[in-house]
Structures are given as C-alpha cells and as structure tokens.
Specification:
alpha/beta; 4-stranded antiparallel β-sheet; Helix Hairpins; Rossmann fold; 342 residues
Length: 342
C-alpha cells in the first residue's frame, strides 16, 4: 500500500525538499572546507548553524569570500526549509499523512490474517458478498481499484479491511494474504478481469477455493480451466428469483422472513464430520443434533451428489459425511466444534 502513497504530489515535494536540504548541507560543508580551509567538523557545524539561523557566532573568522558564501548558504537554506514546511503542511492538510498511517495499520492487520476470504470488486455484487460474509462472522479483505467504492464501505463498516489496487496483480493479491486465505470471490465487472484474477490467484495458492462471477456463458469454461472452482451467473440467479416471486411468492417471502430473524443470522450451512468426532458412528436419532446444538438437520451424505434429504433416525453418520443443517451462527459453530472434536 505504501507504493500508492509514494506517488502523491505532496509527498514527492516533501521528499524533494529533504533531498535539497541534504544537498545544501553537502555544498555548505564542501564550500567551507575549500574556501576557508576548515576541517570537516568545523565546516559541518558552521553549515548547520548557518542554515538553521540559530544565531551562534562564527566558528572561525571569515574572509570576504567566506562571508559571501555564508550569505548564499543562508538564502538557499531558508528557501529549502520554507519549501519543506509548505510541503509538510500540504501533506497534513490534504489528509494524505493520516491516510498513509491508516493504510499502514491496515497492512499490519492483513499481514496477521489467515483463513480469511478475499473479495475482488467492491461494486454491487461485491457489496452483497461482503454483507453476507460479515453477517456470518467471516474474516474478509476487499480489493478494488475504485477508491470511492472503498471509502463508501469504510463509512458504513469502519472495521472492514480494504485495499486499493488491481486484483489481478500478484503483488496486490500477496498483500491481501492470498497464500493464507481459504477462499477468493472475484466479482469484477468484466469477465476478462475475473479471468485474470482467477489465473493469478490459482498460481499463488493451489489450495484456494475460488468462486468467480460471469456474465457471458462462454466465459464459464475459460474460468474453470483457469482455476475457478465455481462460476456464478448473477443474471441467472436474478431471473430465478423473479420467477419464484411470481409462482411461489409465499415460499420466497417465508425464506426472506426466516433469514431476517435473529438479526439475520439464520443460515443453511454445511459441516463435514471429522474422524474421532463424538458423532462418528452414531445414528441421527441417537445424536439428537437439535437438542445438543439447536440446528435442524436437513440432509446427510458422503458428498453433494449423494445427500439423503431429511435422513431417518436410524441412519448412521460416519467420518467424512457432509451434514447440511439450518441454524443461527452460534448453533452452527457449536455443531462444527462437535463435528471436529476428538
């Protein structure tokens, strides 16, 4: 993130003023050593007190050439100092210093993250993704080129970790912690941009789960070949929602109301049963997940293609089974702990 700050005009002026001040110092030391024949220590001290205009006396008596050189040194030094003060003032007034400090703090926070999700694109789709992930308690970093989008998010969610940059850039993805992340969602406007993000992310983290947005159906195969685990067509989902509102409005409204209950934390989740869990080898009725955790068991099976919906009480759960449940955040976390407990 520091690279964005370095390109600011105010900081360039401040850096230039520091360079000019060092140049004035070098010229002053060299001038006194050549003109007056002083050693480095005396020349350096005289240069500093002259440029700083502290009013101390001369180190040694100056001849005519030395006096004129001192006059030129004072004028040059004062000019550089005034230029530096104005640059520093502009840096503070324009808010770039505060922005730099905030970005540095955010970089440190991102550097400590692991097991988080990266969202590429802070537009309308990215906003919906971010809202859902935050609501369900996940750690998120959002990346977008457009600073207004990020500023809008910071106003509504000050704690959100957001980075400005090109999500297809390896450098930006590395800064977002892609090697330590568990998932990446690419929701950029253009399919080609999402394709580049998927390629870069997959190369940096082969174990990363990647979900990409697409508008054109022809982009699906390319995104999958590039490394996406799943491709979502937002217009298809929107169309299905509109059709559902037309032919089964009460069901849709019921689901909306259900999701808004308990601060909107009621969700359908998947939990995998780990070896050694207390649930391993137990029948559904014996496990009694509803009483132990509060979740509602909707389906169970070895994988998504072999799920048994509304499993019978006699069905035995085994390590590796996928449990599809409905519950709030606290209930689902309780089940995850039970499913992974040795």
């Amino acid at each position: 993130m520091a690279r964005h700050f370095v390109t600011s005009p105010a900081l360039k002026k401040l850096a230039l003023s520091i360079a000019l001040l060092l140049m004035v110092y070098g010229i002053g030391v060299a001038g006194y050593m050549v003109i007056e024949g002083w050693d480095f220590e005396d020349a350096s001290f005289m240069t500093v007190i002259t440029v700083a205009t502290v009013g101390f006396g001369e180190v040694h008596r100056l001849d005519s050439a030395g006096r004129w050189f001192t006059v030129a040194l004072i004028m040059g030094g004062m000019g550089v100092i005034l230029y530096g003060v104005s640059s520093l003032t502009a840096l503070v007034v324009e808010g770039e210093l505060v922005d730099y400090l905030r970005r540095s703090k955010m970089d440190k926070q991102i550097g400590k993250l692991s097991g988080h999700f990266i969202i590429c694109g802070a537009g309308r789709v990215g906003t919906c993704i971010m809202t859902e992930l935050i609501k369900t308690g996940h750690k998120v970093v959002i990346v977008d080129r457009d600073m207004p989008h990020l500023e809008e998010w910071r106003e509504r969610h000050p704690a959100v970790l957001a980075m400005q940059g090109d999500a297809a850039s390896d450098e930006v993805l590395e800064a977002a912690g892609v090697r330590r992340a568990v998932g990446l969602l690419s929701a950029l406007t253009a399919d080609k941009d999402n394709l580049f993000v998927v390629l870069s992310a997959r190369a940096l983290n082969p174990n990363l789960r990647i979900v990409a947005k697409a508008d054109e159906e022809s982009a699906q195969d390319k995104l999958i070949r590039a490394g996406a685990d799943s491709v979502v067509f937002t217009h298809v989902i929107g169309g299905m929602r509109m059709a559902s509102q037309m032919i089964r409005p009460n069901v849709v409204n019921f689901l909306d109301v259900m999701l808004r209950e308990r601060d909107g934390s009621l969700r359908v989740e998947e939990v995998q049963l780990a070896p050694g869990s207390p649930l391993d080898g137990k029948a559904v009725g014996e496990a009694d997940l509803s009483a132990r955790t509060g979740v509602l068991l909707m389906a169970a099976g070895g994988d998504a293609q072999h799920l048994e919906f509304n499993p019978s009480k006699d069905r035995r759960m085994e390590a590796g089974d996928l449990l599809v449940v409905m519950g709030d955040r606290t209930q689902i976390e309780a089940l995850k702990k039970l499913a992974s407990q040795d």
